[in-house]
Amino acid sequence: MSDYRIKGETGEWEVVIGLEVHAQVTSNAKLFSGAATAFGAEPNTQVSLVDAAMPGMLPVPNRECIRQAVRTGMAIEAEINKWSRFDRKNYFYADLPQGYQISQLYHPIVGEGSLTIEADEKAGLPEAKRIGIERIHVEQDAGKLMHDQHPTMSYVDLNRSGVALMEIVSRPDMRSPAEAGAYVRKLRSILRYVGSCDGNMEEGSMRADVNVSVRRPGDEFGTRTETKNVNSVRFVMAVIEGEAKRQVELIESGGTVVQETRLYDPDRNETRSMRSKEDAHDYRYFPDPDLLPLELDDAFLAECRDSLPELPDAKRARYLAAGISPYNSDVLTAEVEAALWFDNLLDAGAKPAPAANWVTSELFGALNRMGRDISDSPVSPAHAAELLGLVADGTISGTIAKAVFEKMLETGDGAAAIVEREGLRQTSDTGAIEAEIAKILTANADKVEQYRGGKEALFGFFVGQTMKAMQGKANPQVVNELLKKALG
Amino acid sequence: MTELTNLTVAEIRDGHRAGDFSAVEVAEAFNANVAGAKALNAFIVETPEHAIAAAKAADADRAAGTLKPLSGVPIGMKDLFATNGVQTTAASHMLEGFVPRYESTVSAKLWDAGCGMLGKLNLDQFAMGSSNETSYFGNVISPWKRKDGGNAALAPGGSSGGSSSAIAARLCPAATGTDTGGSIRQPAAFTGISGIKPTYGRCSRWGIVAFASSLDQAGPMARDVKDCAIMLENMAGFDPKDATSLDLPVPNWEAALSSDLKGKTVGIPKEYRLEGIDPDIDAMWDAGIAMLKDAGADVVEISLPHTKYALPAYYIIAPAEASSNLARYDGVRYGLRDLPQGAGLQDMYAATRADGFGPEVKRRIMIGTYVLSAGFYDAYYTQAQKVRTLIARDFEQAFGMCDVILAPTAPSAAFGLGEKMADPLAMYLNDVFAVPASLAGLPAMSVPAALNREGLPLGLQIIGKAFDEQGVLNAGLAIEERAGFTARAEKWW
User: Matching NCBIfam families, A to Z (chain B) (predicted)?
Assistant: First the structure.
């Protein structure tokens, strides 16, 4: 249970959050027309006759969009409705050419499911929590109005008109901004694993309507507001924090929360009212008579299920079982690209736990420095496995490994080749090491006295000196043993 | 030349094929008739050049031995079908001047089959009407006159009134129509011609300006049953661009035409016997029953118990769909835009739609909006859908006992223009016999069967099982052969 509370003047308040996430379906064509869907195209260049709602035009469902919605539903272990139907949501707006949006009100394609957010103490999530998902339905996106093109007129860009969206509706199961943030991140991760949405929030591929209400802990739900089209995890959390505070202040000063739609202004970090329930549209939903009910057969469902990859939770469990730390398991499974890269590393023979440490520290550090994604890492999983193998079998030390990795990044060469070329193979030649130790102990007789007198911290000094004398190539374990013997 | 315009589609096709005349001669003859019939106001746009171009191509194809199924046949196109490069208005001010850059599937099929286009035919605005009096481009006048010494202008029926008037007046041998609740059958009955609404889904709706999507269905109108079969063969077919299109092969209806009804059973629905109906209608119906018996059919009485709910259900479902289908006419992207000085978006919508839609269209948009509104939806729309299901079941059960159903097409002969415009309910009643088959998605046709005492044509309706256009056409042919309907309107225009 979250202990997130708003401290009002009259006591503590709990916040109740539900999210409706709109995720653009990854597909080459729109939901009901053959038009393309690429982001950033010139205005009105990806508009078919259907998208522009020319007279006599008809929608035809795009099978790929349906397939992606079903696969997504399977990924959140939801009930898949073999019979679903499209409804029209009627309202007038200049970005809505048909005068209605084709959506699914009465019979969505995906029913009840859930996802789990992991514990994360630092983020204020003391334990893992299951968040219910009420439904997923598919619907058309609208176009975009542009108000900055002309002093007195607005322009319309219909490129997005008709693009397929999944609306993923959560239960009001979240109780803190952190839970909501974790939910959006987890959902995004699952969508990207499944490949049904690229999860790109800046480009608007994923955005959330944030439903917030407050109540005394344990009371009935309060009246909620809905803040529309919030397009980052940070903003989702900021909206909840701000809106919960606003509602508490409103109630405590004698007001009542009205059910309304609000808009978030990221520049001022505040929400403002868009329209109240009284002004709410009557959308006059009814079944779209241009479309037959959508019926899914077993073969289609089987194909959808068989095409699902290993999902984040399963992968995380596998990593934990392989001895990878919970933290590393979380980090490695969050982004599908990293997880796939890491799996390739394991396939190439790397040992799970050290490999996980190396990826999350060395590799991510290097990529961060270079400003590159793991998908275009200059070092391949095979090369990385070779490097880790050299450490594991004692050929090089961890310190040398860092240097070899730098060379790998610079040259693109394999680890073994670099070690050979640069003569970095670590030595376990006790004779050579003992000779160096003897020299160092002689040169630092005072410190030897101190050590023997009980200042054991000096041991590290002798290790460092020996490693330095050996140009880092001495096997640290051998050095430790020999030093201990020599220092008595 | 004038006798060329008396030929049927089959006669033109066969005569052209045999070299009796050129396609250009045929096109010129019909073009001349069209040009000389302005008084009927059957066309919104005349396209003589289109007809001539197709005719030249037909003549060239004949010379090259590459004739198409309808080479040399010029037709009229209801102005509800989008025609590439030719104004398409749905008889509305809203779409006045709208020139699509695409061709409806049905019209494209006809052009591919070799047809030429004489023009775009007038209709009730957005196909909403039963008398062709709601067109923005003026009433269509029927070529028929009552033999009562008067000179009243009569309705050609609707919504396909331009099509019916033009065919009856020999301005074209055949035309396309669309039927949502009788818009092919009732005008055919009013003007003494034939017309068939096929099973819902036979003809693609792609490129047809939508009225009520779950009911709209294209079909041919022509002078006889055979021509209807020929035309329908060249209009029907699966279209992946229409999700409600039937994925079935198109039968060779013309080749399988047969008026021998031995072994067939004809159902007579007792609920269609209306109190106080014009005795001429009942007499025609009884004559029709006798004709089908004569053709070898058995006749049984059947019951379609929910018939009386069909019309109210239709006038909920069709306006509901229309209110949504017509939302796209908003002045934003094409068609009329009425933008008063200083107006915002809402003002533009209001002004554009107030100006662009006629009173009947507005009435149906308002009815449709009302029945879909929160709080009324279940009482109206949901209820009407239940009625629709019951009506479909009535037919299913009836077809357990019979192969086709015979009934009048309309409850009266053509009425005078203006006679019913003041009373929308009286107008809606015109569709009382036509609407049930529409709600059930069944094939149905009207064939001319008799003249009433005023000398006006009356039509009989044959309703068939889903996909059984052949049964409908065959029964229609049996009536046609026995009714010997040869009457035609005397030329006054």
Answer: gatA
Give CATH for domain B2-258. 3.90.1300.10
Whole-number Cα distances in Å, A191 to A22, A88, A422, A467: 11, 26, 45, 49
**A-chain residues near B205 (CB < 8 A):** 56, 58
Is beta strand B116-121 parallel, antiparallel or unpaired with respect to B74-78?
parallel
* CB-facing half-sphere around the CA of B156: CA atoms within 13 A: 31
CA-CA-CA-CA dihedral for B372, B378, B381, B382, to nearest 10: 140
What is d(CA A197, CA A206) in angstroms, rounded to the nearest whole number? Answer: 8
Which residue from A49, A52, A98 is facing B327, i.e. has the nearest CB?
Answer: A98
Spatial neighbors of B14 by CB under 8 A, at least 6 apart, are none
Whether the predicted pLDDT of A179 surpasses 90 = yes
Give me the pLDDT at residue A425, please: 82
Least confident window among A30-44, A187-201, B469-483: A30-44
User: With contact defined as beta carbons under 8 Å apart, do B395 and B439 qualify?
Assistant: no
Q: With contacts defined as CB-CB under 8 Å, which chain A residues touch B88?
A: 55
Q: pLDDT, tens digit, for every residue of A311-345?
A: 999 999 999 999 999 999 999 999 999 999 999 99
Residues of A at the B interface (Cβ-Cβ below 8 Å)? 49, 52-61, 88, 90, 92-94, 97-100, 154, 156, 282, 284-286, 289-292
Helix locations, A296-363, DSSP H: 298-306, 312-321, 326-334, 336-347, 352-358
**Whether residue B320 has pLDDT greater than 50:** yes
Judged by CB atoms closer than 8 Å, whether chains meet at A286 and B381 is answered as yes
Nearest chain A Cα distance for residue B159, angstroms:
17
Give A92's contacts in chain B (Cβ within 8 Å).
327, 330, 346, 349
Backbone angles phi, psi at B413, to 5 degrees: -80, 180
Out of A57, A100, A286, name the one closest to residue B320 (CB).
A286
Q: Is A55 in contact with B88 (Cβ distance < 8 A)?
A: yes
Residue A126 CB neighbour total at 10 angstroms: 12
Average pLDDT, chain B: 97
- CA–CA separation, B128 vs B215, rounded Å? 13
Instruction: Please state, in angstroms and as integers, the Cα–Cα distance from residue A343 to each residue in A101, A317, A352, B384, following that order.
Output: 42, 13, 9, 58
Q: Which residue of A has its CA nearest to B325?
A: A98
Q: Which of B330, B370, B388 to mutate to test the interface with A (most CBs of A within 10 A)?
A: B330
Beta strands B444-451; A164-170: pairing state: unpaired
Interchain pair B327, A56: CB under 8 A = no
Question: Which residue in the set B241, B326, B377 is minimally distant from A58, CB to CB?
Answer: B241
The beta strands (E) that lie in B107-226 are given as 116-121, 174-179, 194-197, 217-222
User: Hey, what are A458's tokens?
Assistant: 């000096």
Cβ burial, residue A122 (10 Å; 0-12/13-18/19+)? exposed
Place of tokens 């006054």: B492
Q: Which of A242-246, A317-321, A428-432, B229-233 has the lowest mean pLDDT?
A: A428-432
Shortest distance between the Cα of B454 and any Cα of chain A, in A, equals 40
Residue B209, min C-alpha distance to chain A (Å)? 4
CB B211 within 8 A of CB B180: yes
Question: In chain A, where does the domain assigned CATH 1.10.10.410 lie?
Answer: 430-487
Q: Domain A430-487 is in which class?
A: mainly alpha
CB contact under 8 Å between A284 and B324, yes or no, is yes
How far apart are the C-alpha atoms of B248 and B468, rounded to whole Å?
12
Contact B206 A56 (CB under 8 A): yes
Active-site annotation of B, residues: 78, 159, 183
pLDDT in tens, B133-147: 999 999 999 999 999
- C-alpha A334, offset from chain centre: 5
